[in-house]
């Protein structure tokens, strides 16, 4: 039985580890935290296969001054982090040109087309179909003219995304509970959402263990080349804090790096300097659950997703690095936005604390996916930005195919690690 180590216990690492274990590999999963407890726990729960446009755009660039001034706006760049973020932002800006936009959109579309079929297969094989609802999603607008919504509608149509135009009456018939101030919507009928992304992660983890997989809760300090593969030096400690002292070593012939926003630190040990930034996202849980499917706001740039335990209010982007303190005003302001869109005001769930997590984002909006060109036996699967939940199953399937000697099923050129 071939041995493989997977670094990273988020939804991407879990989906990868489960599929490798199903394929007959013996997998050791390693993470400094418990499985599914990071960004995978608190994401919006939306399988956003309609999002085929790169994040870099002229409209985003125009918001840069406001990003520095408004601490609770949809896009936030802390002034104290501006210099550190500048190299990433310059690379980000370079992707605004039309030729790059078309190439990136094509690469995003290729992954999105594989995403839900891969999830359906994984959900079925892990007895998790009850956790995902294929009820579509809505993008609503409060503008009376609906001019900007119409522009978005035509952009999605041109990109080949299945969309429907809903005037106000049709919208309220489909989704009661919205404020009459909402004027219309775009419906994405082919997307899905999970009623609890953390429970979904736990279902994957339990399946992984049942298949004979092993989990070790340690921080990977170093990756060193060894005669018959690689040696991983693991730090002693717990998720609350690691001493930096080596606790044990793992010898592994093959290795998959799925460590999310921390992946670039490991890649640096292997000779790669990856321009990865942590985009912070926040969420707040509301008590009521008046919606049938995820509802996003065109103007307010956030999303409301119905879940088992209430309504999750999520979204926004904050650039502040991995170590600075969270600004929970960015979570609490989401309740104000929600109550502008809902017919009946809701309140925050007193049992649920505001949450924040780190999205691993690269300036071209694409992940790093595939085999390492320098080190045989090392594979990469990280940098999924806002689409970690969406792509977890399909990028895990790509890694399984590569390790099994099968075709990847997708051209991996746009996602190669040496593209930077």
Structure description:
The protein has 420 residues and is an alpha/beta fold. It has a single domain (3-136, 190-419), classed as FAD/NAD(P)-binding domain (3-Layer(bba) Sandwich), CATH 3.50.50. The protein is 33% helix and 28% strand. Helix 1 links the parallel strand 1 (3-7) and strand 2 (26-31). The radius of gyration is 21 Å and the shape is globular. The two termini are 35 Å apart.
Overall pLDDT confidence: 94
Terminal Cα span: 35 Å
Q: How much of the polypeptide forms β-strand, as a percent range?
A: 25-35%
Which consecutive residue ranges, at least 5 long each, have pLDDT under 50? none
The CATH topology annotation reads as FAD/NAD(P)-binding domain
Rg, nearest Å = 21 Å
What is the class in the CATH system? Alpha Beta
Structural class of the helices, strands and pairings? alpha/beta
How is the biggest beta sheet arranged?
Answer: 9 strands, mixed
CATH level-4 homologous superfamily: FAD/NAD(P)-binding domain
How many beta-strand elements?
21
Q: Helicity range of the residues?
A: 25-40%
Q: Based on the structure given, which CATH architecture is correct?
A: 3-Layer(bba) Sandwich
Per DSSP, the total helix count is 12
Question: In one word, what is the shape?
Answer: globular
The domain count comes to: 1
